[in-house]
Amino acid sequence: xxxxxxxxxxxxxxxxxxxxxxxxxxxxxxxxxxxxxxxxxxxxxxxxxxxxxxxxxxxxxxxxxxxxxxxxxxxxxxxxxxxxxxxxxxxxxxxxxxxxxxxxxxxxxxxxxxxxxxxxxxxxxxxxxxxxxxxxxxxxxxxxxxxxxxxxxxxxxxxxxxxxxxxxxxxxxxxxxxxxxxxxxxxxxxxxxxxxxxxxxxxxxxxxxxxxxxxxxxxxxxxxxxxxxxxxxxxxxxxxxxxxxxxxxxxxxxxxxxxxxxxxxxxxxxxxxxxxxxxxxxxxxxxxxxxxxxxxxxxxxxxxxxxxxxxxxxxxxxxxxxxxxxxxxxxxxxxxxxxxxxxxxxxxxxxxxxxxxxxxxxxxxxxxxxxxxxxxxxxxxxxxxxxxxxxxxxxxxxxxxxxxxxxxxxxxxxxxxxxxxxxxxxxxxxxxxxxxxxxxxxxxxxxxxxxxxxxxxx
Length: 458
Known about the structure:
The strands form three sheets. Strands 1, 2, 3, 4, 5, 14, 15, 16 and 17 form a nine-stranded mixed β-sheet that branches. A four-stranded parallel β-sheet has the order 6-7-8-9. It has a four-stranded parallel β-sheet with strand order 10-11-12-13. It is of the alpha/beta class. The chain has 14 helices and 17 strands. It is about 35% helix and about 20% strand. Helix 12 crosses helix 13. Strand 8, helix 4 and strand 9 form a beta-alpha-beta unit.
């Protein structure tokens, strides 16, 4: 067997985000094949063979790649609409348009969403796609194809809805699936696309949309399906006060108790938002090791509230960061969520003690890997882990007077990405994507947004 080719990165600051938060003011990383072979202080060891590239990373901070734990890519082509709405009014305004999407639109929107994240340091992405209008084509396949072309590690949370307007839900009747159809299509997607190997580039989760858009049967049977297939579960939870009222009126209990009654608490589950959680809810999540995707910008955009992230972390709840759909976070970037998570949580009860820079970085890296069930493989810089890492340029005017590099990355302006590696393969160089054409993606997404607007009658 041929020896693995090596890439050597030297003269950089390192924030490993390992269990001890090990950092090096000047250090190195050696990549061999798709793994991190070694890292540490000073220059790389002498005598390394099969070195195909050496990178002088002077002026850079190297971190694990960012991990996005919640998103809706299709929303890329409906950005900038319903900008002054709360969640429920926003959904009512946009569902009629979303119900008109097709495969071509979803592929372009996925390209745009993935490109924006990848050029900003995301190496592991996910998409919660739950809108499957009849006759719209292979939407799951289109999203996975876009992720593969971009070069990111990817989890598709195959969503579903079976509670439409006629059943008291929000989506139009023609935009939902039947219970049987949703379960069958989800199982087929898992069997076709899910890879359970250590270095898998594509995984699939079972992901009914939310308590107010799916039946109890779909939640319960979805959980049973996921566990039979050995994959993770994802949904929205406790996002708004209205959701809590809905669950109490319809089911006689709050969202957390309802989720528990349907099998939706466990270490194989993560939920988006979890803004309105009381002490009992947080304790239940902690006992079950249920994960949370914290989406600070989206929660602010839709006036949903401030999630109790410091309390979740103190209780032992796994927490990662999410962009959320770009119709409720038009920037579409995750690296800005490091800063927003820190700042918004300081508006809560814990004030300046809520989060610090290193906790924010952990949320965006190792915390996200935990939530996606991939912390053994990625999320920190450690020998033997997958070579998913980012070089942030911190020697420009934007960060010149901030001595601590992690503080510069989190508190400062969005740092340029000089290089990003996934599985040992470089996908970004000097802020530009290497394997897809950003200009063509911009043209295509603009075209598909205009096409959707025409079809929806805007």
